Amino acid sequence: MKLLLIYCKLFAYTPTIKIIDFAPDESESGEFRDIQTAFIQLEEGDRAREGEVAKKLVKNLKWICGKNDTGKRIILHSFAHLSESKAPPEFTQSFFNSIDQRLTASGYEVHQTPFGYFLDLQLDAPGFSLARVFKSID
After folding, report:
1. Which of 60, 63, 92, 110 has the fewest Cβ atoms surrounding its Cβ within 10 A?
2. What is the pLDDT, as a whole number, of residue 136?
3. Three-class HEC string of the chain
4. Can you give the pLDDT at residue 138?
5. What angle (nearest 5°) sits at the alpha carbon of residue 89, between those of residues 87 and 90?
6. 112 closest CA partner among 57, 37, 59
7. pLDDT for residue 10
8. What is the CATH number of domain 2-136?
9. Where are the domains of the chain?
10. Beta pairing, strands 109-112 & 73-78
């Protein structure tokens, strides 16, 4: 798994092009302030070790939310541009829903961008030490 974490003063999106047939129709935009974003790419090998990868991801997300003082607010965004290896979209969507449930059960406010769409994005990301973090979860 590849993980790009960006703290945002502003994160906004608008769905533009549906790229996965099974994705539900989405047209609603979203806008969030003072929130941690997680750009996540699941890789093919992650399916065989789903439990371990999920545990490490949740740990990293909780850590960065604490460091950036987001009030336990996070956005999960599927971003299949961090590696050449890609997990199947059905697995990725299921994995995201599972992570959402785990974080929500721990008291986090979790949002997901529409899965299976290209999105127009608007980000306002300040420049400080932990505002942008890249992790490779092996």
Report:
1. 63
2. 93
3. CEEEEEEEEEEEEEEEEECCCCCCCCCCCEEEEEEEEEEEECCHHHHHHHHHHHHHHHHHHHHHHHHCCCCCEEEEEECCCCCCCCCCHHHHHHHHHHHHHHHHHCCCEEEECCCCEEEEEEEECCCCCCCEEEEECC
4. 82
5. 110
6. 37
7. 98
8. 3.50.80.10
9. 2-136
10. parallel
- Over the chain (138 residues), the average pLDDT of each successive run of 10 is 97 96 91 97 95 97 95 94 89 96 98 96 93 92
Q: Do residues 136 and 41 make contact, with C-beta atoms less than 8 angstroms apart?
A: no
State pTM to two decimals.
0.93
Task: Say what the pLDDT of residue 103 is.
Answer: 98
**Residues pairing with 49 in the sheet:** none
CA 93 to chain centre: 11
